[in-house]
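Please, structure for the following, as tokens.
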Amino acid sequence: MTTNHSAVEHHASAAFHHQQAAQFHRQASKHYEIGGDYAHAAHQALLAHGHALRAIGRGSEAARYYAEHAPQALSKAPESVPRFPLKPADSAGEVQPAMSAAGHHAAAADHNDQAARHHAQAARHLEEHEEELAVHEAQMAHRHAHHSVFHGDEAAMHHVEHYGKSHPTAEIA
């Protein structure tokens, strides 16, 4: 089935981009922990953000497959599998008020790793024609993806507050 294969490809692509995002978030986190090269850390964070957005886009393509070709899978999840909405998470959990940029990048990396695992598992379930389980994994990946973006945004705000130039005419050197 080519449409099924397409959804598998979207999951594989999403997993790849989540892995890339995790790698760049970890590099940014290390730069913040060491201190000093904040411009490079910000660059790594930007790359991570781009990969996370690509991953979300690929995951959304896979979700379109379920809506068009497997609507019954959206309504029939096994009772042992908790179900989650296919919309962005309303919150990313408890945020520690004193969480540093390094901490937010580390959390974003962890969420990207989890999302990559869920996308890979969704692809395996689709290959085995287990659409209900694939839907569940896709939903979990989607939630982790949005948690990752949340932590990336928090890290960016922390960067601006602590390391960014504050006047309106500040330019990137």
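The chain has one domain: 2-162. Residues 78-92, 166-173 have pLDDT under 50 and may be disordered.
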